[in-house]
Structure formats: structure tokens, C-alpha cells
Amino acid sequence: MNDIARRLEAETDAALVLLSAYHDLLADDDGLKEDMIEGQTNLNETIRRAVIRIAEIDAMVDGLKGLADKISNRSERLTAQKEHLRTALAIALEVAEKRRLECDIATVSLVSGQGKVLVTNEADIPAEFWKRGDPKLDKKELLKALKAKRDIPGAHLSNSETYVKVNPL
Predict the structure, then answer these.
(1) Does residue 65 sit in the same domain as residue 23?
(2) Which residues contact 20 (CB under 8 A, 6 or more apart)?
């Protein structure tokens, strides 16, 4: 709990004690209750400070959301830039007819990736590749079976993609 919240709680408790102690005297006189709370506690000023703090927090949260959006956008741009550079590296290595290049800061290699499961018709895939409960395809098991050269109706392996692997020193 922060300082303003603690003060607000303490001032609220003080006002309750005050109102309870003078309950009979105050009766239904709202003006007298307000005057007594204002004169004997700092409740009104503490409420004011709490409202100001809420406004400050709202402003900070809005600012942080804007900053988070900018950071996210920058991250997406940098990720796209990295992928573009990796593609350009792969093309450059292929044109140079090199599978690997060592330089002072890294070793760059063209590596063949693994094929991915391409499902052409889920209804044809045997039950052994479905997870129990809600029907859900177990692509890990399906991939294992396809890699083991099993003929699975409704699925096959895609061609493997070549990608660039950079190993910094």
C-alpha cells in the first residue's frame, strides 16, 4: 500500500471515530458533520491528494502504453530488417556458391531446415495422430511418422527450406 493510500485509510478511520463519538450531537446535521471532519481531520486534503495521484497514474499509464506501442513497432521493424538481411545473406552465399563463410566476427552457414507437416485433409489422417479429449491433431507424432517415411493419408512433408545460420565467435 502506498503512502497516500495509508494516509487516506488513517484519515478515514479518524473521521469514523469522530463521527461515532459525536453521533448523538451531530444527528442529521450534514453541514456540522462536514465542518467537524474538516476541522478535526485531514480527510478532505488527503482525498484531494489521492485524486491528484490517480490523475498522475493515469497519465503515466497512458504514456507507458504509448511507449510500449512504439517499442513494439520498433521491434517488429527490426525483426523484419533481420529477416531481410538473413534472406540477402542466403542469396549472397548461394550466388558465391559457398555453403559456409568464416570471417573475423562470425561463421555464416547455409543450413537445410527440416520439412514441416502439411495437412491436406484432416479427415483422412488416422486416429492414432489425434490427441484424446477434444479432437486435436498431434503434429509432433505426425511429423515423426512422416520423417520415418510412413505414408499417411491426408498429410505429407513440405520441402525443407534453406536458412542462414550465424555463429558469432
Answers:
(1) yes
(2) none
Q: For the segment 43-96, what is each residue's pLDDT rounded down to a tens digit? A: 999 999 999 999 999 999 999 999 999 999 999 999 999 999 999 999 999 999
User: Average pLDDT of 8-25?
Assistant: 90
Residues 90 and 110 sit within 8 Å (Cβ to Cβ): yes
Q: Is residue 92 part of a domain?
A: no
The 3-state DSSP class for residue 169 equals coil
Closest-CA residue to 156 (of 167, 143, 165): 143
pTM comes to 0.51
Residue 25 domain boundaries: 3-80
Q: Which of 54, 52, 56, 45 has its CA nearest to residue 7?
A: 45
In a domain, 89, yes or no: no
DSSP character at residue 125 = S
